[in-house]
Amino acid sequence: MTWKAEIDRGRCMASGMCAGIAPDLFVLDEEHARPLSEEVPREERVLDAADSCPALAITIRDGTTTVGPRP
């Protein structure tokens, strides 16, 4: 099973936190971060990447339920 990762490009400030935590799942392009694939594994580090984003630009969903960032 997988989750879906979305990055709000309007909020992303390209801090690189997500790519630092999960470099095989998130990368920085010229001005923003992006997931390498919309589907990401159900792993703690995916949630850590969403939690660590200073702009709260990463949303992780399990179907219609938002699982990250955590409150």
From TrEMBL:
Pfam families in the record: Fer4_13
Listed InterPro entries: 3Fe4S_ferredoxin (IPR001080), Fe-S_cluster_ET (IPR051269)
Keywords linked to the UniProt accession: 3Fe-4S, Electron transport, Iron, Iron-sulfur, Metal-binding, Transport
CC cofactor: [3Fe-4S] cluster
Regions crossing the membrane: none
Role, per record: Ferredoxins are iron-sulfur proteins that transfer electrons in a wide variety of metabolic reactions.
Name of the protein this chain belongs to: Ferredoxin
Protein's organism: Streptomyces hygroscopicus
Lineage: Bacteria, Bacillati, Actinomycetota, Actinomycetes, Kitasatosporales
